[in-house]
Write a structure and sequence with these properties.
about 325 residues, alpha/beta, Rossmann fold, 7-stranded parallel sheet, 4-stranded mixed sheet, 11 helices, 13 strands, aldehyde dehydrogenase (NAD+) activity, NAD(P)-dependent_oxidoreduct, Epimerase_deHydtase, NAD-dependent epimerase/dehydratase family protein, NAD(P)-bd_dom_sf
Length: about 325
């Protein structure tokens, strides 16, 4: 099968590309500037220069493809960059969906659990849980709007499936993305962990489920690709044990969280640039993003390898590629 992959330089997209090649598929990727990115070096694939925000680029890239896995997205957890995220996450998804509809080919859209409902410690959310409770920052809003745009096209005949991954770790995290959390635990050894928790999974398991969805997913359906539900305190403690670092002392209290978020927002205002520490990110990190992946396991053959193996493999990959000391 000839598959077009967008977002091929990102964590999930790069793992999808490599897995498709290993399984004997022909792969075409669309990237903005292939000359400046090492994430695709040495891979036997077709590279098309273009941007998901450009309709002509996407239509050309989709020509001759038998399927599209759309993994391109802009991720920033904060209050800013809403316009840029709307252009990439919403308009880009709509444009890719239009190309798939025009060429009558299957599409898998890689969304996020952040587009879904908030889970609870004692009640993980699923695909049917009412989408309430999430902090309405631009990333959450644009991921939801992207799914809404796609559902409109599905109503017009688009053959598409939506997958919603959780917090992913694993190799080939070139940017890096969620791996920044592991790098922070290794380098900074933060004494306080966020109050909340998340569903944590291996990007390689997510990539395989995305490929399976090309054949097995039901049109118009969402599939949660989560994993082990655990607090960030427990996650950081396990990261520290694997990497030989100091574990966090305790969780952040609500007052400390509010104060740090306030000063993070003030700093962003003064500097004109929002960093990773801001009130939106801290509020989201105080929630429990717990989910059930039962539907994906039943219909896509989704499986989860042990989390400690995932964290070990991620740590070793960062060491071998110069992000962390050997």
């Amino acid at each position: 099968m000839r598959v077009l992959v967008t977002g091929a330089t990102g964590l999930v997209g790069n793992n999808i590309v490599r897995m498709l090649l290993q399984q004997g598929h022909q792969v075409r990727v669309m990237v903005r500037d292939p000359r400046t990115d090492r994430s695709l070096a040495g891979l036997d694939l077709e590279v098309v220069q273009g941007d998901v925000k450009d309709e002509d680029n996407v239509r050309t890239a989709a020509l001759g493809a038998e399927a599209i896995i759309h993994a391109a997205a802009m991720v920033h957890i904060g209050w800013t960059k809403g316009k840029m995220m709307h252009q990439t996450n919403v308009e880009g998804t709509r444009i890719v969906g239009l190309a798939a509809l025009k060429h009558k080919i299957r599409m898998v859209h890689v969304s996020s659990v952040d587009a879904l409902a908030i889970g609870q410690e004692d009640a993980p959310a699923n695909e049917e849980t009412p989408r309430e409770g999430k902090i309405p920052c631009p990333y959450v809003i644009t991921k939801r709007e992207a799914e809404e745009e796609l559902q409109k096209l599905i109503a017009e005949g688009l053959n598409a499936v939506i997958v919603n991954p959780g917090l992913m770790f694993g190799p080939w995290d070139w940017k890096p993305s969620s791996g920044r959390m592991l790098i922070s635990v290794v380098k900074k050894q933060p004494p306080l962990a966020p109050n909340g928790g998340g569903t944590t999974c291996d990007v390689r398991d997510v990539a395989q489920a995305c490929i399976n969805a090309l054949q097995q997913g039901r049109v118009g359906e969402n599939y949660i690709l989560g994993g082990e539900n655990l607090t960030y305190f427990d996650l950081w403690t396990r990261m520290a044990a694997i990497t030989g670092r100091r574990p966090p002392w305790r969780k952040m209290g609500p007052y400390f969280t509010a104060v740090v978020g306030y000063f993070g927002d003030m700093w962003a205002t003064m500097e004109g640039k929002e960093g990773e520490v801001n009130s939106a990110a801290l509020k989201i990190a105080s929630q429990f993003h717990y989910y059930s992946s039962d539907k994906a396991k039943a219909e896509l053959g989704y499986q989860n390898r042990p989390l400690d193996q995932t964290l070990e493999d991620s740590w070793q990959w960062f060491r071998q590629n110069g992000y962390l000391p050997l």
